[in-house]
């Protein structure tokens, strides 16, 4: 194994709800090894220095979506952010725009509710039975929604979203992108129902197209694009229903 | 006042097996309340990291017979052949079911499901969603599960004990991470879907949550673990981190190369080459390294996985995640350079003993997925059978647990008041463990030291090559670590999101599972599948063609034998 000779300092924003003070920054000196990620530094702290530090992680390969945090002010996956890319100072803080439970652990309850609200499942008049076999879906039809199915629910986009910062009722980037993913799926017939949910209350029309969500997405999903297209789809659907009413 | 929780069916674990079970139980009857309890949000479960694909017979050129015989041969004739036959027949329906639920499977040009080659499979039968198959399956299942109002989730709750009385499941003790409050959760049926135990080893592809919780709880409560000695090593993981580089990279045509620029598998699996089974390939890689034909790097020795000849277009279309992982975690672009790889612990073939309905010998207790051992994987699982297994036996366990719970529904409410012991007694046992930890002041050993000690013992003595003295040494040190855990101290004395308390429970589970593995490995004096004994290098059907069931006792596992079901495939020599 490689020997660690250098050390680096990291600064972590703490929140200990049972402590006085609850909020403070804490510095830790961490042994540095090449190819170290921010998550490795946090694990070093927890294992060696301070077991009270709380943060979520699991897969350490950028796919489970647990380990989002602000790293030097930018929402990132700590397991996919090499320390070498950060320069000298490293500050780790919880994701913006969420209630904090403890340290870097934030409350996902609001998103989990929104996720269910947009009906992220195939909606059809009549479901096929297994004996009828698969729905055929051409590679081009798959490609249409493919990027929007890559969301890992890491919440970086919500942390970056200025609209969500101002209004927690805003449906937000990831939930909208997932709704759009199902609307684009050739097997689905539920687009109108989802558009209803996505436009009511603080829905997609509240998005001011800042586009930060797409910038911070670690999986190259483009929620900003999804939201703009949903707005068009919604406008077209209303137009169609007006025309329909006029005809009849 | 402590809140009371009671459900008809409780599923522990929210990965592919657990969610498939939950959907099956909830759709079986909307009168049933079905709870999914998980220490992480379900979409964080380790299913998310599965890459290559999921096997099933869907193409005209394929047959159930062929999938079964591949699986049985791959498992070195330890799989129960009746279970394998049931499994291969059910798998296609489950793949179609997931397709109907929206899984973005990769497609042929005509829109039909695409399939790829995989190790030990004699034809292309592995369905996939690029190389993020587990991710897409998990999210599809989780999103679909949100349709069912009778599925209730307890996210970020940690189950600490399974409660049985009179040989019947009564419920669970679980801890809410947010409040550290312990609650008794009464249930008519419990399904353990907590995955495997890869994290008892140091060098593993597994996520940090894979600590064998369900296996240990079922074991302590009296259900036997089966075939625990069989730990699968995946041949290709990144040195250092252990991050998985999918077998699909070889399924799509990748080569394994040693320092002499040689496709060395010609000396081990001349017919199948890179598509031999994982047990033989992992031993081959280590043999090459030991004989000096590996490369040396900062994280130890390795060989190379070369994908360059596949071309950028194919890599981006079929293996985009491999490219992303190699770039981010090894600083290598596989389009231009070969990827350094070495074998890492990947999968627990053994698990909680069940039949094909997911039933354990304990009334009301079920298991499915990697936590269970049916057994269809025998001594060595074939790649891409495990995701199908999660679906097939997740569904089976869900349906049977629902039926069982419905039959009990007529007999009154789910009451914790009809327990023989008061609920408080059960809560107190785990409460005392927690307070013991909180009260202990410094000077004790750190949990992280104990855990890495266990992991290094397991890597050194219970790895790809094993022998009697190493296994005995592992058991001795595991015993010492148990004492160490009794003395361990933690820093965090708080109630909110105290992850050190959880880690202490996990380490206790890991130690029990580790000892069952080491002991089962010690007394199986033969080599079969993934279990290789340098002191007994041959398979011995005369003396060891049986399953080993480990029963918990305070002094260590008590082993009983169970015969292997052989239907039409007589044990033969494995050649690839």
CATH hierarchy class name of the largest domain in chain B: Alpha Beta
Q: Kindly identify the CATH topology of the largest domain in chain B.
A: FAD/NAD(P)-binding domain
Helix fraction of chain B, binned, reads: 25-40%
First-to-last CA distance of chain B: 63 Å
Amount of beta strand of chain A: 5-15%
**Structure summary, number of beta strands of chain A:** 7
Number of DSSP strand runs of chain B: 20
CATH architecture of the largest domain in chain A: Orthogonal Bundle
How many separate domains make up the residues of chain B? 3
What does the overall shape of chain B look like? globular
Sheet-strand content of chain B, in percent, reads 15-25%
Counting copies of identical and different chains, the oligomeric state is heterodimer
Structural class of chain A: alpha+beta
How many helices of chain B? The count is 15
Structure description:
The complex is a heterodimer of chains A (248) and B (576). In chain A, strand 3 (68-71) and strand 4 (74-77) form a beta hairpin. Chain A is of the alpha+beta class. Chain A folds into 2 domains: 7-106, Beta-grasp domain (Ubiquitin-like (UB roll), Roll); 109-247, Fumarate Reductase Iron-sulfur Protein, Chain B, domain 2. Helices cover 36% and strands 14% of the residues of chain A. Chain A has 9 helices and 7 strands, in the order E-E-H-E-E-E-E-E-H-H-H-H-H-H-H-H. The longest helix of chain A is centred in the last third of the chain and has 25 residues, at 223-247. Chain B is of the alpha+beta class and 576 residues long. Chain B has 3 domains: 5-230 and 349-409, 3-Layer(bba) Sandwich (FAD/NAD(P)-binding domain), CATH 3.50.50.60; 235-343, Alpha-Beta Complex (Flavocytochrome C3, Chain A, domain 1), CATH 3.90.700.10; 423-544, Methane Monooxygenase Hydroxylase, Chain G, domain 1. Helix content of chain B is 36%, strand content 18%. Chain B has helices at 16-28, 64-74, 81-100, 133-145, 213-220, 248-251, 278-290, 312-318, 320-330, 385-409, 423-439, 447-461, 468-487, 499-523, 541-544, and strands spanning 5-12, 34-38, 54-55, 115-116, 126-127, 151-155, 157-165, 168-176, 181-192, 225-226, 231-237, 255-257, 295-297, 300-306, 339-348, 351-353, 365-367, 372-373, 546-551, 558-563. In chain B, strands 1, 2, 6, 7, 8, 9 and 17 form a 7-stranded mixed sheet that branches. In chain B, helix 1 (16-28) runs parallel beside helix 10 (385-409), helix 12 (447-461) runs antiparallel to helix 13 and helix 12 (447-461) runs parallel beside helix 14 (499-523). At the A-B interface, helix 1, helix 2 and helix 3 of A face helix 3, helix 4, helix 9 and helix 12 of B.
């Amino acid at each position: 194994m490689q020997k660690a000779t250098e050390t680096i300092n990291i600064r972590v924003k703490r929140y200990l709800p049972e402590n006085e003070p609850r909020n403070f920054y804490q510095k830790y000196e961490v042994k540095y090894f090449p190819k170290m990620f921010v998550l490795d530094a946090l694990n070093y702290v927890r294992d060696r220095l301070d077991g009270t530090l709380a943060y979520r992680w699991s897969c350490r390969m950028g796919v489970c979506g647990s380990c989002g945090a602000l790293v030097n002010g930018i929402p990132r996956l700590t397991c996919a952010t090499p320390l070498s890319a950060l320069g000298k100072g490293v500050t780790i803080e919880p994701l913006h725009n969420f209630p904090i439970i403890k340290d870097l652990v934030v409350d996902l309850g609001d998103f989990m509710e929104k996720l269910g609200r947009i009906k992220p499942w195939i909606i059809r008049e009549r479901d096929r039975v297994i004996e009828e076999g698969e729905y055929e879906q051409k590679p081009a039809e798959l490609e249409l929604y493919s990027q929007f199915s890559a969301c890992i629910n890491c919440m970086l986009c919500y942390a970056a979203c200025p609209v969500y910062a101002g209004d927690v009722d805003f449906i937000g980037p990831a939930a909208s992108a997932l709704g759009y993913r199902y609307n684009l799926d050739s097997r689905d017939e539920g687009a109108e129902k989802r558009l209803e949910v996505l436009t009511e209350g603080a829905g997609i029309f509240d998005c001011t197209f800042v586009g930060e969500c797409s910038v911070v997405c670690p999986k190259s999903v483009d929620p900003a694009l999804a939201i703009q297209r949903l707005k068009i789809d919604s406008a077209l659907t209303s137009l169609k229903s007006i025309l329909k009413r006029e005809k009849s | 006042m402590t809140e009371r929780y009671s459900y008809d069916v409780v599923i522990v674990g929210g990965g592919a097996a657990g969610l498939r079970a939950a959907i099956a139980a909830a759709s079986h009857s909307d009168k049933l309340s079905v709870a999914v309890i998980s220490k992480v949000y379900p979409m964080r479960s380790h299913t998310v990291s599965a890459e290559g694909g999921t096997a099933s017979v869907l193409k005209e050129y394929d047959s159930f017979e062929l999938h079964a015989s591949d699986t049985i041969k791959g498992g070195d004739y330890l799989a129960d052949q009746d279970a394998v036959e049931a499994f291969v027949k059910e798998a296609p329906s489950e793949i179609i079911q997931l397709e109907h639920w929206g899984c973005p499977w990769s497609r042929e040009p005509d829109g039909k499901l695409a399939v790829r080659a995989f190790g030990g499979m004699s034809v292309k039968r592995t369905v996939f969603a690029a190389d993020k198959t587990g991710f897409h399956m998990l999210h599809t299942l989780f999103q679909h599960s949100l349709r069912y109002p009778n599925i209730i989730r307890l996210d970020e709750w940690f189950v600490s004990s399974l409660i049985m009385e009179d040989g019947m499941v009564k419920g669970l003790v679980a801890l809410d991470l947010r409040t550290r409050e312990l609650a008794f959760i009464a249930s008519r049926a419990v399904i353990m879907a907590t995955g495997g135990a890869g994290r008892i080893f140091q060098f593993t592809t597994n996520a940090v949550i894979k600590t064998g919780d369900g296996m240990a709880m079922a074991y302590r409560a009296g259900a036997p673990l089966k075939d625990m000695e069989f730990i699968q090593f995946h041949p290709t993981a990144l040195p250092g981190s252990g991050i998985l580089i999918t077998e699909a990279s070889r399924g799509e045509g990748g080569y394994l190369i040693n320092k002499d620029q040689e496709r060395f598998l010609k000396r081990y699996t001349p017919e199948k080459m890179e598509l031999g089974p994982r047990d033989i390939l992992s031993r081959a890689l280590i043999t090459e390294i030991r004989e000096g034909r590996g490369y040396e790097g900062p994280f130890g020795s390795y060989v190379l996985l070369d994908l360059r000849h596949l071309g950028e277009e194919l890599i981006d279309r079929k293996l985009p995640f491999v490219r992303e992982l190699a770039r981010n975690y090894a600083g290598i672009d596989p389009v231009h350079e070969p990827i350094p790889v070495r074998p890492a612990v990947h999968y627990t073939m053994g698990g909680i003993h069940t039949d094909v309905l997911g039933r354990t010998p304990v009334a009301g207790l079920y298991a499915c997925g990697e936590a269970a051992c049916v057994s269809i994987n025998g001594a060595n699982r074939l790649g891409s059978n495990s995701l199908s297994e999660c679906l097939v036996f997740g569904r089976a366990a869900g349906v049977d647990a629902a039926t069982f719970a419905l039959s009990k529904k007529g007999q009154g409410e789910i009451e914790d008041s009809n327990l023989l012991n008061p609920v408080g007694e059960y809560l107190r046992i785990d409460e005392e463990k927690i307070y013991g930890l909180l009260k202990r002041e410094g000077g004790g050993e750190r949990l992280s030291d104990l855990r890495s000690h266990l992991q290094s013992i397991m890597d050194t003595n219970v790895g790809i090559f094993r022998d009697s003295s190493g296994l005995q040494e592992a058991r001795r040190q595991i015993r010492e670590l148990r004492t160490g855990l009794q003395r361990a101290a933690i820093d965090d004395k708080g109630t909110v999101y105290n992850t050190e308390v959880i880690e202490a429970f996990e380490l206790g589970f890991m130690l029990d599972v580790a000892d069952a593995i080491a002991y089962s490995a010690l007394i199986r004096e033969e080599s079969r599948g993934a279990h290789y004994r340098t002191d007994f290098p041959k398979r011995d059907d005369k003396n060891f063609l049986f399953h080993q069931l480990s029963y918990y006792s305070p002094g260590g596992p008590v082993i009983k034998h169970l015969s292997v079901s052989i239907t039409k495939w007589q044990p033969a020599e494995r050649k690839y």
